[in-house]
Design a protein that fits this description.
Two copies of one chain form a homodimer. By secondary structure, chain A is an alpha+beta fold. Chain A has eleven helices and 15 strands. At the A-B interface, helix 8, helix 9, strand 13 and helix 11 of A face helix 8, helix 9, strand 13 and helix 11 of B.
Chain lengths: 392, 392
């Protein structure tokens, strides 16, 4: 796997979380990159979200580095703005740029003060150790209840040479992003003007990070950044633009699916495809309702092809449809035909649900062209254990 | 406890559910009562919901009896309409009335055919045994995963004599009613014209059954009926109308709270009060978002005063508010002051959360007069166990 050119990374344990594992990540572009960002729509927003949004405006979408900590959300404390500001200022000083060129993100517990001195003290040695090879270490340092780091890579050959894109994300709980995952960082060495980059990021996220749900909670810290530093020497033309858009979507989709699969306590991934809805928007609404239903998610945990729950969840989505026009297909087996139980072997379908991936096709017969894909995970007793004990 | 006059009840085991416990309930008014009904807003509707709604229209809001089965939702099968129709016809024949005077409700698994012969065969002996004293037996027969029967009673003294009201309900899972609980049956011996009765039922449900959530799933079978047979001899006048409205609300609230408290796997009840919102509607939206948050519900299970989760859930509700104007008070302890952590003893507040009832006050400082109460329960590993194994 080759990283995009001109990016370097460093991770360390700065003592922010109790468990002594890396909790601070620094991601730097050798040259100023164009940058795009998407943030939580929660009205309760963490300081890093507020500050990063300001920096993107102030810099006109330009960025040299991103500083990320795990273990503390830096949210809902009186010192949160100060901590976020001090972190970006310290990074800016060390990189020799202005602080508006530094973006910041945090994840962890809400309402506990973040001591920025832990971050500023760790930064000088991190800057010295910056290297492309620490990309995986950063993907690990941003984890909270994630069980595995999440990275994805894409490469696009063009007449002018290759464009590489790499991404990392963390998720696990409080995941029902409406604009971004909990935290996601995408890097490309393509050259893309900032406004176009923002549009591309929004479009990619709409079909990927915005289509996953673990527990329907929307975090105060959701952040997704995309940096484009142009170091590949390739500028996107009319021809390559669409191909790059597709690469971006693929990298984002891979990360989004990894988040859903690694949901807190999850053992199984469920891909939901809706077809035949009146519009893509209503298809998404149907898929989202199915993905959010605790009864669907527990049925998946129990390997129970309880199709009535899928149908009922869709029925309560707010989208009008005729149940007698609905077919449900689970792992290739027709389990519901025109709104009624289909002839199927329950043990056989149950067996397919024991695997770690299941796929539900929700098909409305008729002329509707609306479709959507959505990803969710099963709801297990481990989700309860993790969240009832989170701080203790 | 005295029941309203002129109602009789019977329950039996008709072999609809596997576990050999009463699963069929018959509720009869000696004389034709006025009747009001509220039904699920799910577009996937069970046959009893569709048929009862038709009967209320056809009869002009008049009813002699209600037949209810547990163990089978009579939903999403090709024979569901036939089964519901046959049940009401059999009851009507035995009571000597037309089938439009019979209402029907079902609860249980979706998508399995309901054999109406089990019901029609059990009915004759049930009609013979009709008696006021079987009211509690009916409350038991309509249970599915409920752990206790739910009944409530109210009595209102008027110049003309006493009006009595009694209700029963079942809930437990798939409870996020937007207009009624899963199943609820209210009886009064007041005399109330059908259109007024419908308005009163809608108003009472809006403040009670529509303000509870167990798992945010909306059932295909939600049904709430209110019968008024006039046998108290008391007609509601301008003075008593409001007092009766309050009695009705109290009975409905008691049942609604009992449903939330007995949510699947639940050990604790959480009462959420929102004050200071721009309107009652946005207060309800805030309360609903908090009540539905799995992270709030697991924090309650773990006795964790994790106020950031309450704030974040409200922030993602879609209601705009200024977090720095929010105070949170949990069991009488201020845990969040103006959007920030308040000074409080964590062990002390934790201790209050070990009890089986907790109360959260979400207060927005300012001039907003909007308020709402909402009830939910904790989310425990038992919820997963119950729903991952429901049919096996």
């Amino acid at each position: 796997v080759k990283l995009p050119q001109g990016y370097r990374f460093a991770a360390t344990y700065a003592g922010i979380r109790k468990r002594p594992e890396p909790d601070l990540a620094l991601m730097v572009s050798d040259v100023e990159a164009t940058a795009a960002g998407l943030f939580t729509q929660n009205v309760v927003r963490a300081a890093p979200v507020i500050l990063s949004a300001q920096h993107l405006v102030k810099s006109g979408g330009r960025c040299r580095g991103i500083i990320v900590n795990a273990g503390n959300a830096n949210c809902a404390t009186s010192s949160m703005a100060k901590a976020a500001r001090a972190s970006t200022q310290a990074v800016a000083r060390l990189l020799g740029t202005s602080s508006s060129r530094i973006l910041v993100a945090s994840t962890g517990v809400i309402g506990e003060p973040l001591d920025e001195r832990k971050i500023t003290a760790a930064l000088p040695s991190m800057v010295e150790r910056l290297s492309p090879e620490h990309f995986p270490a950063c993907a690990r340092a941003i984890m909270t209840t994630d069980t595995i780091p999440k990275t994805a890579f894409g490469e696009l050959a063009t007449g002018q040479g290759a464009i590489r894109t790499a991404g990392m994300a963390k998720g696990a709980g409080m995941i029902h992003p409406r604009m971004a995952t909990m935290l996601g960082f995408l890097f490309t060495d393509a050259a893309v003007p900032a406004p176009l980059l923002q549009r591309m990021l929004r479009s990619a996220a709409g079909r990927t990070f915005n289509r996953i749900s673990v527990d329907s909670d929307t975090s105060t810290n959701d952040t997704l950044f995309l940096l484009a530093n142009g170091r590949s020497g390739v500028s996107l033309g009319p021809k390559t633009l669409q191909a790059f858009d597709e690469t971006l979507r693929q990298v984002a989709e891979e990360l989004a699916i990894a988040i859903a699969r690694d949901g807190e306590g999850a053992r199984k991934l469920l891909t939901i495809e809706v077809e035949g809805a009146a519009s893509d928007r209503s298809a998404e609404q149907l898929a989202r309702a199915i993905a959010n239903s605790p009864l669907v998610k527990t049925a998946l945990a129990g390997a129970d092809p309880n199709w009535g729950r899928f149908l009922s969840a869709a029925g309560a989505s707010g989208v009008k449809f005729d149940p007698s026009k609905v077919d449900l297909c689970l792992n290739g087996h027709l389990i519901c035909h025109r709104g009624l139980r289909a002839e199927f072997s329950e043990p056989e379908v149950q067996k397919t649900m024991l695997g770690d991936e299941s796929k539900l096709l929700f098909q409305i017969r008729g002329k509707g062209a609306g479709k959507a894909r959505f990803w969710t995970c099963d709801l297990t007793a481990d989700y309860i254990r993790i969240n009832a004990d989170y701080r203790t």
